[in-house]
Amino acid sequence: MTRRKWLPVGVSVAVVVVIMVALTIELAPWTSSAARTRSDLENVLDLSSQPPEIVSIYRYVEGQRSLVRQIPCYCGCGRSLDHQNLFDCFVISPGVYSDHASGCMVCQDEVNDIQRLAGEGRSAREIRAWIDAEYSRYGAPTDTPQ
């Protein structure tokens, strides 16, 4: 075969490869949950572009990480994002914030309630019990150990 006859075959193969790569990249977040990572499913949030009330909630969570890690989240993120506790809804890694909680009223309301209860002098165990009782109507919690 001459070069001219191979050119359409080569172009066709290249087009198929490009389409397959594009589909793989586009569909990667929809692969099985075992293959997903948090960074595949969550976008990083730039706190400098957020309203003060959102920044305040994120800062509280970051400052109270030991308390917030003891509290389950009831928004469904345990199943959809593999979160283990409420802290995971806000912080991906130190200084890197998830945009998940910025748009989730369940996450935000839980933190507001934690802040209020802690301000009343309640212990972490009492706060956890209150959150469990109040938010269990929303669905299954994250798998947060007692």
Summary, kept brief:
The chain is mainly alpha-helical. It is built from seven helices and three strands.
List the keywords:
146 residues; mainly alpha; 2 domains; 3-stranded antiparallel β-sheet; 7 helices; 3 strands; 52% helix; elongated
How would you describe what is shown here?
By secondary structure, this protein is mainly α. The protein has two domains: about 1-30; about 35-140, no CATH class. It has helices at about 5-25, 40, 50-65, 65-70, 75-80, 105-120, 125-135, and strands at about 45, 90-95, 95-100. It has a three-stranded antiparallel β-sheet, with helices on one face. A hairpin with a 2-residue loop joins strand 2 and strand 3. Helix 3 packs across helix 6 (about 105-120) and helix 6 packs antiparallel against helix 7 (about 125-135). The model is unreliable at about 20-35 (pLDDT under 50).
For the largest sheet, list the strands in their spatial order: 1-3-2
Distance between the termini: 72 Å
The ordered H/E elements are HHEHHHEEHH
Portion of residues within helices: 40-55%
Draw up the topology in text:
Blueprint: H1 3-27, H2 38-41, E1 44-45, H3 52-63, H4 65-68, H5 77-80, E2 91-93, E3 96-98, H6 105-119, H7 124-135
Antiparallel strand pairs: 1-3, 2-3
Helix pairs in contact: 3-6, 6-7
